[in-house]
Amino acid sequence: MKTKKDVIILSRAREILKTARRIVIKVGTSTLAYAESGKLNLYRIEHLIREIADLHNAGKEIIFVSSGAIAAGMNKLGVDVKPDTIPENQALAAIGQGVLMHIYEKFFAEYGQTIGQVLLTKENAADEHARENSRNSLRAILDMGAIPVVNENDAVAVDEIKIGDNDNLSAIVAAMTEAEVLIILSDIDGLYDGNPKLDKNARLLDEVTEIDSEVERMAGGAGTKLGTGGMFTKIQAAKFATTNGVTMLIINGATVGNLRRALNGEAVGTIFPGKEIHHD
Fold it and tell me: 3-class SS at 175?
């Protein structure tokens, strides 16, 4: 049962969604590609880019964090099963990154938007000088009226310098750029108290004000065969984002219009209020 304090925190968080000027939007492979074939879902990609372009037209600063490079590379080469070795995955990412950016460039241009690609590794986030350079680069792209498209630099990164997944990368980018909101587009409606694919009684949580061991247990393990992240990495991202004052939201990226509804403050998905709004 929600306490009066929880209701106030949730209300404030929904208000932040409506008034946020700088927003990080992360899209996963499961949203970008068909689960059955692994090929890119161009219908969904176009509708998502149209929404993002319209938000930009409305005066929002959007940073777009995108997965999907390896899936796009697999698609390009006709590879059906994701390889096990790092070099093969790096090669697929190098091929797929160009494919993905070409599609993004085409769709964003159709809606009058300019994009700029930014590839990051853990070094860019961990080292103070590199972090400052990355922050300045992202802000310069925003100041020029363009939309940064961010991905981990999979083509050169090894385990020692990999962030590991784009959920955590998006949280790092949100904190780095002092975004008010991070929205993660998933293949389910948000965080459930059980696995909705296995338990028909699983209940969607509309808000999580504290991330504890019980919340982490609900998040379970990895997601689809194409993606590297599951709900667990999204909870890790939420922990980092909210600690840095960023309000995070997980919504279903397959539902057209969800992004706009969320930013209108409607009760969509699961919201994780940024820590700074917990204060009275």
Answer: helix
